[in-house]
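A quick aside before the break. I want you to see a complete sequence-to-structure record at least once, exactly as it would be stored in a machine-readable document. Don't worry about memorizing anything.
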Amino acid sequence: MYGIVRKNQGFVSIYSEPGKGTTVKVYLHRHAGEGEGDIHEIETEVPLGRGETILLVEDEASVPGLARRILETLGYEVMTSMSPEEAIEMVREHVGEIHLLITDVVLPEMNGKDLALTIRKMRPGIRTLYMSGYTANVIAHHGVLDNGVRFVEKPFTPQTLGRKVREAMGTGNAASGP
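That is the input. The structure line, written in tokens, reads:
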């Protein structure tokens, strides 16, 4: 099953807790052809960017390209990295402002929280949005992130990512902490 899902550019999310069971979610792209029946797509307004620069750090190969396309369509400039080390180097070399760091919580070399702390030392004004295939409650429960940080669960829809990015950017709100 996993091979079929990956071949069709989908995602598989698996969550398991001892004594509580396992949940497997399979996500596939929507068919582009005409649908059958009386299904009406609900349109939701997605806040647009204003040319802000986002650094996206994700080690799962299929996510950065999809997220970049979504964010660029919404009006953001996007830099992508597949490792914390590369992301830190990109921050060092980037001349302009980086408004938002979007980072996976679990990364090779260091976790997303430590990456955000490191980058915040170099760019004190940067805001952070964390992402993971685990729910925010699970991550907070295991002490990986503090309660109340900005978080988006993978896989995400363009609408969800767009809203979470705007929330993390803040519209006069205090910066979200690492």
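Two observations worth writing down. Residues 1-29 form one domain. The CA atoms of residues 56 and 102 lie 5 Å apart. We'll return to this after the break.
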